[in-house]
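Quick start: what a row looks like.
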Amino acid sequence: MGRLTNARIGVLMGGRSSERDISLKTGQAVHQALIRREYDAVSIDVMDRLDRALEDQNVAIAFLSLHGPGGEDGTVQGFLETLGIPYTGSGVCASAVGMHKALTKTVLAAHGVPVPPGTVLRATDKLSLAQVLRKAKLELPIVVKPVSQGSTIGVTIVRRRTQWKEALALAHRYDFEAMVESYIPGHEATVSILGTSEKGSTVLPAVEIVAPEGFYDFSAKYQKGKTRYLCPAPLPPKVVRHISELARRTYEALGCEGAARVDFRITPRGRPYVLEINTVPGMTETSLLPMAAAQAGIAYDDLVERILQSALDRVNRFARVGPTECV
């Protein structure tokens, strides 16, 4: 198969978020795949004056490999739309909602997708742990995390009351809003999706994540050998079918495109809860999207091209109706 486009592709990576190092690894891997497929691709570390870098490099299409705030939250997507540069992945609205865990839960609950019960605390709120538990009808253990962060940064499982203040302060270090929600015991799994609801989405095999001490934190995610990934997930077929359908519903409810990964906790009785969606999933050597794609028979370079197709679909949409917001 020939190249999908002859236009110059800028792989946007790095940035200023706490996930910068992972983004650089994702971007470098994507860039190498595009070069192997003989695309005219350049890598761009997104720091100051992105507009100048795009102009200097004569970029016609942006392949987004940015994680976290400033790259996955709709801001760079909106910026690229003002420049008329098509980009990979989800649009402004889906990216913004997907990055904000509380908004994601609100949308999913409205669509009948199960999410853990919880509440949001702003840094200016002055509530005791007892007041929070009573208000949200929660019991220990609970999970405290920033509302808009990824890679399990700033997350604490609070099992004892003495952990509360430190956990809340850590979450607020990364975000003005902190989410407090029920801890769901059991299995951790993730399901990746490719494509669009308009042209049809593909649900990839589920991956079960077996982390040390049951907590899939930052080091468990990115240190080789620390966590076991089981793909396809050795869960009961009924549970796998259920989370695959919930992942598709999540993807479509938010209007995602290109690729995304939906993370779950599954109780010992097999009841799943959606924790969050990642609209720019990692593409490093230890990332779960490429692992699931490989299990489905999609090689890494083919996966990159399938994500690239989402930018080309956006080219056609821009031509028909111009840049769009929530539609």
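That is the whole record. The chain has eleven helices and 13 strands. The longest strand covers residues 187-196.
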